[in-house]
Amino acid sequence: MRNVNSATTEFRLSFHGSACKDPPEVDQTYKIIGGDGQEYGPVSLLELKDWIVGGRVAALTQVWSSDSGRWGPALQYTELQPEIGQIAALSVRARMDANLVGFWPRVGAYIVDMVVIYFLCNLILGPLAIPEPVQGSNDWAALVKLWQTAAPQLALKILLEMTYTVLMTGQLGATVGKLLIGARILKMDGSRIGFGAALLRWLASLLSGLSLGIGYLFVAFRDDRRALHDLLAGTQVIYRR
Q: Is the domain of 128 the same as that of 212?
């Protein structure tokens, strides 16, 4: 009798123990609609991520998940966003690299801007007044008088140049010269430059000039066609599409 009761107890424990076990987990699978309109899959999450990195799946590719049972663009899946973001960034970078503005077009744009600034200065401030040499005065006295007369006007001309460059670049992404050659200035992530970065870029351009123009020559020798002031401001000049 004891053996029967023991067997019954073991059976009950075994039955209840097996009933309490969690069902085996099933890995989530995915399907996609390829560029040819055909359905591919099911595949695991790791395989799907490999497809994204390999360029087979884009942000708007229709993806089906066994978890949701619905179709939707790949970018709506949280688990795919790191790979989608990486591919999107590389795509932006590739488009920008394909449209870099070289050295000589930028020289042409710079000359146009200097002409524009010259006419603006003469229109708003008038021509630079140079005092006549005074008879009997030495060279030092003449130089001091010239500086006293020209310095305020030069300061106003520099302020006007800064205002022109920062406003045009911050608002339109380009000065008149760059607009004429079909170029624009962007941040390295492809976003608009804005007024803050435009001011930083103009200030950095002073260093390009003070380096005897070597900062500008960076454009001719760097693969990314960035001048010294572009490097300091985190910008790049590309052709408009």
A: yes
